[in-house]
Amino acid sequence: MNNAGLPGTGLGGLFYLVLAFWMPVAELPRTLRGRSSRARWRQIGAQFALAAGIVGAVVGTAAAYVSVSGSTTPLGVRGPVLFLAPVAVAAVLLSVLVVVLRTWAGWERLRSDA
Amino acid sequence: MTAVLDGPSPAASESPLGRHMAPRPADQLTVIIPAYNEAASVGDTVRSVLEQTTAPARVIVVDDGSTDDTANVARQAGAQVITPPANTGSKAGAQNVALDYVETPYCMAIDADTTLAPDAIERLLGPLHFDEELAATCGFVVPRHVSSVWERGRYVEYLLSFTFYKPTQDYYGKPLIASGCFSAYRTDRLREAGGWSERTRAEDMDLTWTFYQAGHRVRFVPDALCYPIEPHDLDFMSKQLKRWSHGFVQNVRLHWKGILPLGFLSTVVGVAMFDAVVASLIYLFVLPILAIVLNAPWILLAYVIDVPAVIVPVVVAAWRRGEVLRALASLPSFFVLRTVNGFFMLEAIVTELILRRPLLVYEKGH
Prior knowledge:
Largest sheet of chain B: 9 strands, mixed
Structural class of chain A: mainly alpha
Mean pLDDT of chain B: 92
Number of domains of chain B: 2
Low-confidence stretches of chain A: none
Mean pLDDT of chain A: 87
Radius of gyration of chain B: 21 Å
Radius of gyration of chain A: 19 Å
Distance between the termini of chain B: 29 Å
Order of helices and strands of chain A: HHH
Helix content of chain A: over 70%
Number of strands of chain B: 9
Shape of chain A: flat
Number of strands of chain A: 0
Distance between the termini of chain A: 39 Å
Shape of chain B: globular
Low-confidence stretches of chain B: 11-20
Oligomer: heterodimer
Order of helices and strands of chain B: EEHEHEHEEHEHEHHEHHHH
Number of domains of chain A: 1
Largest interface: A-B, 43 and 56 residues
């Protein structure tokens, strides 16, 4: 899911998790320049906590599933690999997608400058 | 022929300025409510606007060729009514008719089936009034009725979107869309953008991305609440999903070159587009085919594999509203809606991008 009306596989969700976890890092330079505020940090705290809660819920569900279902899981994949593999695939796919998009933007800028 | 405007004029109404020492942002606000056959709901909408903690200077309902009693109901509720000579053919068209009559620095668009929390306008106008760089602000949307599968699905979808995705977009300065059902604008910026364009079926997304390309900013105000009536059956929901899906694809096609230099926005849109295509293919083809070919029904669990991820922001949002049980009971409907949404997204992509047959007709689906 991405936004209302836009179906998703979880790739968009992963993207927003990364964005939420990146917020404190992005805010630090702003804070050091004196351009941040308590309201902004409250917003960051709320989104960061939500993202942490989502990761916790996913990891907790995976751990519960593995412990309940025993050592062998569907398709013969064992243990946490069943859950880590799709996350890793999604992370790689997302990274490639972002790189492609930014390269595309750079290429367009070069073309318009030329 | 020109549009006809009647009803209580701002001068005839009690002057808001007369009640306060200092002018408030709402005194400089005109609310525009486009309406087509909305007699059942427009009265509640107008009253909820006029009963705000800071009522606007003027409320204009555009009766866009209704065949029911929309105009009378709106007038009796206290709005001015504009009647165009003929149906404009779209929500954007109706809103633009009213825009010609706006004389205030701020204006607001609200759907005729939407009511507002009592302080919604005050909260939505605050940032717009104090930050001159802002062109628009948009609020938090919660379905007014949560009963059918479709309303429940949309309820969960909104809780998720407006609690996790939209605030994150807002932090990075680019909410994806200032929702047409409840947004406020600086009138001059809106006019500079040419008003609400009729070139796509999602005029609100079009306007938001046009603002960004012009260098303007948009903010999401999470504590400004509105309550629209969402589609209650599959017929209405299909019309809305078709319009939204086609509108998204049309806007990507129209604006892609323009938003590409805007790093965050184009990345969000690119990821959303890619994810929507892949998700639609997976939900409609990959999962059912795999389950049949491999004779492995457990594969169908993939439809709901992200329950743990969805449930956290939804429950947090519902807990703030005291609606945890309602949210949990509505959760299965979200996955039904998402799968149906996949069908309409795929149909829009094929029709718009491959067959090059754009959706031109605006069909109301609430």
